[in-house]
Amino acid sequence: MQSTQKFKNLLNKVSSQISMFFKGFAEGNIITKGSYIVMGLGQFLRGQIFKGVMYLATQILFFYFMITSGVSNIIGLKDLGSKMQERVWNEARGIFVVVKGDNSMLMLLFGVATIFIIIGFIITYIMSVHGSIQNEKIILSGKKPNNLRKDIELYLNDKYHVTVLTLPVILTFLFTIVPLVFMILIAFTNFDRNHQPPGNLFTWVGFENFSAVLWNDPLKSKTFIDLLVWTLIWAVLATGLNYIFGMVLALMINKKGIKIKKFWRTIFVVTIAVPQFVSLLLMSQLLADLGTLNVILREFGFIETFLPFLSNPTWAKVTVIIVNLWVGVPYSMLITSGILMNIPTDLYESAKIDGANAWVQFWKITLPYMLFVTGPYLITQFIGNINNFNVIYLLTRGGPLSLDYFQAGKTDLLVTWLYKLTVNEQNYSFASTIGIFIFLISAFFSLIVFNKTASTQKEEDFQ
Amino acid sequence: MIKNMKSRERFSNGIIYTVLSFLSFIWLLPIAWLVLVSFRAEPGAYTDYIFPKTYTLDNYIKLFTDTKLFNYPRWFMNTLIVAVVTCAVSTIIVLLTSYALSRLRFKLRKPMMNVALVLGMFPGFMSMIAVYHILKAFNLTQSLFALVLVYSGGAALGYYISKGFFDTIPKSIDESAMLDGASKNTIFWKITLPLSKPIVIYTILTSFIAPWMDFIFVSVIMKDNYANYTVALGLFQMLSRENIYQYFTRFAAGAVLIAIPITLLFIYMQKYYISGVTGGSVKG
């Protein structure tokens, strides 16, 4: 109900904007009418010289860009190039000469960029027209439109959010949104090792990659399903166990009567501070088949042959979860210990009077309280673990490898599979498809939890 | 009765001390091993003993003198430069973004936060490949500048923790300043920032540390341009199959050298870390 209401509101807003756009043209004077064709006219002729010049410059640049390359970029999006690179016999020099063909990748990239530029231009255009209409109204009411100094003041105060957010938004567009759109589009192409620019072309293939993952290609879909199941098991165990053990550790350190709390805490903090690629690479050496741990165990006569910590699929899965405890417990210890101290002590007092022992207190008071407070933290941890690249890749590289899988090993998560598919296999289109599935999975879980946690909705209460 | 309780208390504390000591031992073991290896004179990754037969400082000295194959001082400087610039840029971006999303009210605020949430759910590595191609189109790949762009370009999406902190500053402070005629710009620089020292320090430190820890993005960006490697990627190379026997001890020495400053920073910023991470959620 609420969402349909919201949607209706949105529609109303959009339609009123559109009608204002046309009404402004019909009712405006000659300057306003002109500013529909020449951007900035309505600003320039009404004393906002700087603004007007900027708008006009934007328009000129945009048209120049569209004529020189924009239009052809958009046309190029249709089939991402048709001329393959080839070697032509050069009679005069007596050698083969490489004649450059179309580069599908750049064409897709420039096409996407052009679409964003067009959208940006349309927004600027509407802003300029809107400003022109406002200016006319202001003049009719007998006032003067803001000059540059007034405008700057405005952007330092009432419109401060515009000033502050411009740079972050631009950077996010350039380094997150455009690349993501690009990669999402790649999932609908056949960009792989055999279709690599500049030597080769790639083109649109529709949902082929998606159907291959889901049912069309038995090897790929088996790999996907198996890795998905393992990813989820891993994420649940890694998040849950780390959380519980971290909390137990925090409870121990913070217990009344335990001395040198800071000392204990610092020991565990030290392990956070050692870069993960160092500690995990070290662990993988320690736990290898011929690694130090096995060698030492054999020296002492505990074992006859080495223990396959990282080379047997089941052992490896258990090992990564345990090593991940080593990595993650200090973090959750740090985070939970602050909150644990905030639990109202009277809860425990009354529980003690009721005769609850420490075990019951933990399950009935501590854990529910902590879950309530750290709900959002847990879900970010969970999603972080779905995407936990370091632990798996540095410890096992996804291995032991398996022929049942398509380019993956038994401990590979979806995200390390994605890495291998791109870096080792250059199967970009398939990797992007997996990336989209990872997104859908993360989004699914976040939606469930975010709708249930109160603390995200109550942000205003505490200000 | 009281005596009984006291002895029980002592008993349970004793157990906790034992457990804590045991856990500390396990947690410190790999690190102790790393330090020992870094002083080991005998080469090789796998040994059947823990304590080196002969101790030496050679591994540390060679890191800085024998730079033909692995130019550690150069990597160290690279990482330092990237870390300083990244830290400056992304701290500003994170603080501006979180301030706007926490203290200012405007139409696009909620939609922007939702978009940030959605963007955060894509695996970071996915956009990395596209970023690589974009940088390549601008002829920027394999440069330190590209690395700075990559580390600070996505910084805005990490606004969440500092926003949580800004949320806890009472709004009445802003309101009274506004009554005195202060603009929002003045409020941000003169009032909010000085009040937010912990989160500013936290943001600076985390963004400074990130380039030292990361090796995925560097490996995608730098490929085979050894001169522009960062410490992490360089050390990673030492453990490749053909190098590991000879360079394992030197790897350990290099790792210890970057672990020490980061450890000190971390110990120092513990309290900020806690107040940063929990500041946003404690209010539940």
Descriptive notes:
By secondary structure, chain A is mainly α. In chain A, 70% of the residues lie in helices and 2% in strands. The radius of gyration of chain A is 31 Å and the shape is flat. Chain A starts with a helix and ends in an 11-residue tail after the last helix. In chain A, 36% of the residues are buried. The model of chain A has no long low-confidence stretch (mean pLDDT 83). Chain B is mostly helical and 284 residues long. Chain B contains 13 helices and no strands. In chain B, helix 3 packs parallel to helix 6 (144-153). The longest helix of chain B is centred in the N-terminal third of the chain and has 37 residues, at 2-38. The radius of gyration of chain B is 24 Å and the shape is flat. The two termini of chain B are 41 Å apart. At the A-B interface, helix 5, helix 7, helix 9, helix 10 and helix 11 of A face helix 1, helix 3, helix 4, helix 5 and helix 6 of B.
- Main sheet attributes: strand count, strand direction, barrel closure of chain B: none
User: What proportion of the residues of chain A is helical, as a percent range?
Assistant: 55-70%
Number of helices of chain B: 13
* Widest sheet, order of strands of chain A: 1-2
Helix content of chain B: over 70%
Biggest interface and residues each: A-B, 102 and 97 residues
Low-confidence stretches of chain A: none
Mean pLDDT of chain B: 83
Give the distance, in angstroms, between the N- and C-terminal Cα atoms of chain A: 30 Å
Strand content of chain B: under 5%
Q: What is the H/E order of chain B?
A: HHHHHHHHHHHHH
Q: Which spans of chain B have pLDDT < 50 for at least 5 consecutive residues?
A: 280-284
The radius of gyration of chain A is 31 Å
